[in-house]
Specification:
By secondary structure, the chain is of the alpha+beta class. The protein is built from four helices and eight strands, in the order H-H-E-E-E-E-E-E-E-H-H-E. The N and C termini lie far apart (76 Å).
């Protein structure tokens, strides 16, 4: 009975010692594969408050004689989402360092322009001809809305600071994921970042 008790005690000690083995956390190629994702990562939402100028041309044909070209102005608000394409992120391990390539930021989806701002009652219009009118129609409102969306995209894509901030936010999220998967501290990781311009 004593021998049996000693054997059971030795087996328990061996199991406890092997269970307390130091499992060193490290970033492996297998963990890197978990980071390779597809889709878009939205990291920034910009708010815009602009004024759009829209030109309504004179109509064609005899019924449009003596019409005046008209201008309309609309004050509008909207948001635009920016981020990166995750499938273009490249992560490579080289011995004790990790190289990460972050693609150029891009617009994700269509701008969200407030359609209520393009209601005919909200327009500031140039004077119409008193002889033959050239009224502002729903088509004009729709065209002004489309122009506003296009203008917002152009403004966002030409704003280098905004694009850089979008990439920096993506860097922070990717770095946090690398730390989470590796279980290492930030100071134990040597991450080299490269950004597409």
């Amino acid at each position: 009975m004593k021998k049996y008790f000693i054997c059971v005690l030795l087996v328990m000690i061996i199991l406890l010692i092997s269970g307390c083995e130091n499992n060193k956390n490290e970033l492996t190629t297998e963990n890197i594969k978990k980071l390779e994702l597809t889709g878009n990562l939205v990291t920034y939402q910009a708010y815009y408050h602009n004024v759009i100028e829209y030109d309504k041309p004179v109509g064609a044909g005899i019924t449009h004689l003596l019409e005046k070209e008209r201008k309309l102005f609309a004050e509008y608000t909207g948001t635009i989402r920016l981020g990166i394409n995750l499938s273009k992120v490249k992560i490579e391990m080289k011995k004790n360092s990790i190289n990460v390539f972050i693609p150029k930021a891009k617009i994700i989806g269509e701008p969200n322009v407030n359609k209520d701002d393009f209601d005919a009652n909200n327009f500031i219009e140039s004077k119409d001809s008193w002889i033959n009118s050239n009224p502002i129609t729903a088509d004009d409102s729709s065209s002004a809305f489309d122009k506003a969306q296009k203008e917002m995209k152009e403004i966002a894509m030409n704003d280098e600071e905004l694009l850089s901030q979008t990439q920096q936010r993506a860097k922070i999220l990717i770095e946090e994921k690398i730390i989470q998967l590796s279980g290492l501290n930030r100071k134990d990781l040597n991450i080299m970042w490269e950004y597409e311009q």
